[in-house]
Amino acid sequence: MKVAILGGTGVFGSRLARLLARDGHALILASRRGGGALAEELGAATIALDRDGDLAPLFAMQPDILIDAAGPFQAYAEPRVARACIAARVPYLDLSDDAGFCQSVIALDADAKAAGVGVLTGVSSVPALSSAAVAELSAGMTRIEAIDSAILPGNRAPRGRSVMEAILAQVGRPVRLWLGGAWENRPGWSDPRTYRLPGGIRRRGWLIGAPDLALFPDAYGTRTVVFRAGLELPIMGISLAILSHIRRFIPLPVPVGPLQLVAGWLEGFGTDKGGMSVNVTGRDGAGWVKRTWRLVAEAGDGPFIPATPARALLRQGLPAPGARAALNDVPLDRIVAAMEDLAVRTERDEERITPLFETVVDGFAALPDAVRESHQTIAVTRLEGQGRVTRGKGLWPRLIAAVMRFPPAGEDIPVTVIKTRTERGETWERRFGRHVFRSHLAAENGAMTERFGLITFTLGLTARDGGLEFPVTGARLGPLKLPRALLPVSEARETAPDGRFRFDVTLRAPLTGQFIIRYEGHLAPVE
After folding, report:
1. Does domain 133-301+344-352 have CATH number 3.30.360?
2. Among 42, 120, 364, 507, which has the highest number of CB atoms less than 10 A from its own CB?
3. Of the candidates 449, 452, 448, which has an alpha carbon nearest to the alpha carbon of residue 404?
């Protein structure tokens, strides 16, 4: 097959060219400077052109298919190359990792079908490889609760300017997530999580945009989709996290050139090992389960991974007419087979899941349905309703309320609670109107703890009289245990007298017993 590759000498385009040359395809390498030494090495034809310029000379070379590997796809206002391919009746693939660009290509479906041309976008690590992993992992599931993916390159992997631009453009900017059954905006390069790769490798990943975020909710009927990327050196990941925090308030421009220079100085550190993790949480015949597929590429072969889905696809033949994202177009085993000549290892495992509260509360099964269901957090639980907040007076209660970041007083306040399962327990984000406060719950020594900043409370969870009570039975500041006299008095209860979940929490100050706050209301799961 004669394959034209736009950006054929770039970081990913050159890897794709090498893989396709091994499979015996005739290549046309198109870039601003032509194919150069790579074209000579691979015996490829070459042409110098800009993807934003006139593509007619390339089509005159009569390729059987054109693959756009130029990037950064975030920078392209519209899919002009895909349009040109449809007009020239040349099948088209791209290695896009940008949700907006993928959706703009999908919008060409009617034109592509009318021309009888196959047009596929996202034939790369995302969404082609990630969706193949999701399809494999979700087999036999009756419900998919969450999909969580991450790409975690090694520090010695090549970093082209387009890759740097794609990452930096999202730092501190809103990333649109499907979280608990509703859309949320979260800052790019925030909310880190640790992922495990084959060989005992652990890497941190931060939220970032990907086509999966836009495409997977409808494709798989899941309630949550998140995607993260990471950098091997902690100093680089943390620096971007600090920049993300600053850019939420100050729209600082990011000079790509100087940052690329700094990244080059650090290139000698770290390793050439990079990887990918995809996990799917859902229900099968035996209950709740989280299944994970992982990949690690060694010996510098990580940058080949985004090219393997296109290699596997061409082994199947040309794409069918129409424009669409590459979701499940190539099975996982065929993509893995396209890595056969690379230093790649994969693994798969699964973990049975029991909700946190179910492991701690005696009599959990006897609680009212609405109360019990509010604590069935398998991945992300989202509850919405209304509430009322009453605040105490006096300096001491106000000081405590400020430290704990409790909401101001108000009536008929919209309330949203988002509970997220973590490795150590659950994170609760409570929103009363625009005010947000968070806590982290975990099971410790058979009891439930709830941490607000540096203060951790021990809760004596008790199922009693058709409800769940949350009395405070202990506390510590950091590692230091606090005396009982410094404990707040908590009267917290969850009930469902009319079948609707209701909460009622009253807190009184330690030492004085002064009233601090009462927040009460009702919540229901988001369907």
Report:
1. yes
2. 120
3. 452
